[in-house]
Amino acid sequence: MIEIIKSGLYSTIQDLGRFGYENYGVPISGSMDQLSSVLSNKLLGNNDNDAVMEITMTGPILKFLEETKICITGADISPSINDNSIDINRVYQINKGDVLKFGKLKYGLRSYLSVSGGFLAGKIMNSRSMHSSITKSNKIINGENLKIKNLKNIITKRTIIKVNYLEHFKNNIIEVFKGPEFDKLTTKQKQVLLNKTFTISNNNDRMAYQLKESFKNQLDPIITSLVMQGTVQLTKSGKIIILMRDSQTCGGYPRILQLSKKSINKLSQKHMGNRIKFKLIDL
Amino acid sequence: MKLKSYNLKYKRFGESSILVEWPSIIHESILENILLFKSEIENKYLNNNIYLKNSYNSLLITYEENINPKSKISELKNIYIKIGSTQKKDFNKWEIPVCYDIELGHDLNYLEKSLSIKKEEIVSLHSSKDYRVYNIGFLPGFLYLGGLDKKIHHPRKEKPVLNVPKGAVGIGGSQTGIYPNNSPGGWYIIGNSPINLFNINKTSPCFIKPGDKVKFSPISLKEHELIKIQVESNIYKPVKTQIND
Asked: In the A/B pair of chains, how many CB contacts fall below 8 A?
């Protein structure tokens, strides 16, 4: 068990998503930056799909009520155990009573905490991912205790594993495919879309990232159609919306681009004010 | 039986998905064609991990791995060619009890004035039609229904209401629907259904499927309470008939 002394800004339990229920209107969800959540599990010796804690910008304070092992990847939010700072991308042994805290955000936006065997948040429709329409809460709550599987015999590497994935946080190129309505854009619009640098607005969360700049648009809405994680929509008023992990299953805005899987992970580490550039990869 | 075959567009959508598009009109025969294609693909891939979802005029096929779009598209085209000879799918028609009492349909008075149609007439127009389920989305268990009588089309509220209760039956533009859970919403509320449209504990969380039909049957406040208790104690069974047209 882990006691949540303080929940942090937005800490949520996520695996890789809830698949197979989209035609009932159920969002897929799952960890935003899956490169980092899978890495966290892998370093610890867990399965890729084991549930991890996704920590956003301001970390929680967690007290471990049992011995276990942990690993933190993704954004560097200056984690510490009993006030001794620890490295990210490294496995640590935790003793009963240890307290994990976070501090200043150094880079990225979302951190991933894995524990031996994964978090045991309730499994609904084959997934432990929290989402307000499916689970009791969409994030962890102060004072709550979280169950963990705490597998004892998993094989981990206690040394630092050399993962040079800083590029994932620093690089601002977002790779895209053409969306179903891409060809309805004018040549000029396509040029602007693919050459301009865009800024992430304050309207960004697990459901969607909206960009700050407006974009001249004459496209009419489409009959409610299908969207995916990473679909880039263009609203009537010219706003660009990039759908993220908690995206609805369908929508009526023209779908102009589709992010590559890698780029959804990359964008998940960006926050308000960060700049991005789209790069078409299916020319 | 030879079925109408449409000129479909196949588009790559990201690394792992193919989007199949039908003509951009809302029509029941297009929906049936989409659902036939969908079930043929499901039969073909049975235990493989592919995920399908449909809307009014498209079908999205998502594979677990990255795909070669050209070869997947030709595979899909081959499946589509063959569906002309398959039997049409059977659908169910569901009777959904709705209480149109003003206590639960609190926007009825407003609509009466705004549409210049008597409340009783609005209720009778709303409850005499069969609605086709085109799609489930927006919220888990939210049905996109087609077939609302033109006389009771009404624009949405300018400002969405924050707390529309579970079961609320509303009118928004040319659409009508039931809120499967408490949620914000901008539709005018004309009644409430006591039944559960979405149950997270079932392997198939919605008993209604795209392609099915829905008919609203008016009930009193007392019946609403009674059915609600039956639903909560898991003994309520919605009334259905098979349609085979």
From this structure: 94
